[in-house]
Amino acid sequence: MEKLKNYIYGQWVEGTGNGVPLYNAVTGEQVAVSDTEGLNFEQALDYGRTVGYKNLSSMTFYDRGEMLKKVALYLLERKKKYYDLSYKTGATHVDSWVDIEGGFGTFFTYSGLAKRMLPNTSFWVDGDTQKISANGTFLGTHILTPSEGVSVQINAYNFPVWGMLEKLSTSLLAGVPSIVKPSPFGSYLTNAVFQDMIESGVLPEGAVQLVCGEPGNILDYVQDGDSVLFTGSAHTGRKLKSLPSVAGNAVRFNMEADSLNCSILGLEAKPGTPEFDLFIKEVRNEMTTKAGQKCTAIRRIIVPEHLIGDVQNALSKALDQTKIGNPLSRETKMGSLVGRQQYEEVLRKVNLLKSETELVYDGKHELVDANYENGAFMSPKLFLNDKPFEKNISHDVEAFGPVSTLMPYKDAEEAAALAKRGKGSLVGSIISHDENFIAETSWKMASQHGRIFVLNRDNAKESTGHGSPLPTLMHGGPGRAGGGEEMGGLSGLHFFLQKTAIQGSPDVLKAITKIYQQGAEKKFSDKHPFQKYFEEVEVGDSLETAGRTVTDADIVNFSNVSWDHFYAHTDATSLTGTIFDKTVAHGYFILSAAAGLFVSGKKGPVIANYGLEDCSFFKPVYAGDTITVYLTAKEKINRGVKGRNIPSGVVKWLVEVVNQRDEVVCVATILTLVAKQSPFIDLNVKNIQKMLNGLTESTPALWGKMSPQQMIEHLEQAVLVSFGEPEADKCFTPEENLEKWQDSLYNHRAMPKEFTAPFLPKDGSLPEPTHKNLEAAKQSFMDNLKKFVIYYKENPQAEHMNYVFGKLNKEMWELMHKKHFTHHFQQFGLI
């Protein structure tokens, strides 16, 4: 039987013991063996702290975000084999989708967050700068840097893929190397995904390691700077947290434990209402999805006392209709538990629940293409606790399977009190259309819950469900649930980052944070900052504008244009008792006038105004006052763009408006989209002619079979087609791929070297030259390039077919030619 290999210190290592046999949860057949005996855990942790930390922490947040995306895309292409393995864990197709593609989705989400919201640096400035001296020469702020250690991540058996990727998404993005320790059960699936992550070649050396089996004494070697993330039972989590190596070394510890989550049906949600039906469906889904093996599953069903019978009957019928059996069958809606060991444990807990509460539903389901003897199948079980304030076993014992308990309540006060008797839960849900009931119950139960999910007719179509943790929201909970937090958008990174206060002068803080601080030295130059590409802009680049004297006419005209006739701008007789001496200029006029002073009218790399932050007005500006503006590049934010957007970044500009007395009257931060410099040649006829002057008959091609003349004639043919001489008769790219290909014209990725043009003969032969020699070909090419430029000046709305990219307009043809010319000029070493 195949032994699962472990991936430590950069190599695949097999354990030296007998290992733990792993079985197919459906058929009982052995699948693999997990074995960690003989592994040097001390060496593994040291390897992560040294090699892994060095490689990951030196990357920027932006680059780590791009790394997550590349890994997720690589895994997504190979998802079929993961589904084939997932069925062996007892998971249905839907269960597997949540685990597998839900895990990939978490990587995609964090990649997007990084590229939209995190800096292109290896540190992260957290919060605003604090002025801690009277004259502003001494400032303070905080920076976040990767914690200098390794993260040991111990995952549960219920989500072999999502459990791993959910933790890695934040640790890798934070720049912290990780050791993944999945539960042995289902680890063959984790192992397969992990192998492909390594095979992708995207992750730097030492970034991740895998221990596939028993953890041994791995936690004996954790030290300060390291972290431990644990998902599993609260009992095991508390034991690990109290280990001398963890507690004694102040190792960061995050626990996400199974909890007795609840769902509350609103007092008004009687049979026949949408909420009643939604409640039954939600509870059934949470009892049967992953066969109830979810840390977020509904364990306590809290129902108005007058609706207990209705809910019990409706839920029993819904569970009766849930087909159980082989996950490979299309009929099956619920699979098996992950193994016989887990089955016996759930059965033990079921018997404990029976000691104090009544089992009111125990459906004897006939299995679809499976049997109870070989597989770890368990039918859903519903208990009734008729006195939930006296019988506490429902609030203490969790059967980690398709098991839940009904319990009655009288009013919102009782509903919240029962919800809190779980002593800390990951999630509680309220299904109701009564906003007052929802609000009152939520406030009272929030202190004991990590998430509150509200479902009703208004959000049902788009709701993600009670049991679905989302990457952008916190996953965790107080008390029994572990007291930890995972994900939560960018908040999830803080666990892995060291927060450090930085104090110093404005110039020192600017040097450390790469963000301009008021009072720091400005850099003036003859080139207008708005004429610089994103790569050229430097923090501190500044512009001092000419002055503008504000007039009474300005104030009147702005009132009329904006319809802002606030008395302070228009009625001098109403100013008694105000802070104004006479009619004052509108704050937004000052900001608009400032923009008029600092913008560059000439077309340049600045694409658009992206936003406005932190605008404050400090002193009034009256008619007769003269304002001057200082514009300074404050911060640069790299930005991932998709589709037909020009590759660009965001530049934050500090706008300081002063009056003739050098008093600051307005400070704001404006954001602009600034284009990145294109790596492709411009369609400048003179420059292209210069490049072609270096092309001779003997110039060798760096790749491909084209001769210099064939290359020029190939480019000329593309130019002719772009203005319809001749008109291309068809596009060879399938319609479903066309939009993706057209979008690719806008990005800065070069055309591939190995690309067979679809319009060429299938034998790879090239057309014979049509011009008498290379010089004649070059001349004809240049003549037609000039013709192209003139044609689109005269016909700016024209569109013509391209053999590969479909019908293109002027902008898209220009982008295509820039990429195409660059590709072939590089082929012959002309660039």
Automatic annotation (TrEMBL):
Q: What is this protein called?
A: Oxepin-CoA hydrolase/3-oxo-5,6-dehydrosuberyl-CoA semialdehyde dehydrogenase
Q: What is its EC number?
A: 1.2.1.91, 3.3.2.12
The organism's taxonomic lineage, starting at the top: Bacteria, Pseudomonadati, Bacteroidota, Flavobacteriia, Flavobacteriales
Q: Alphabetically list the UniProt keywords.
A: Hydrolase, Oxidoreductase
Keyword Oxidoreductase attached: yes
Domain of life of the source: Bacteria
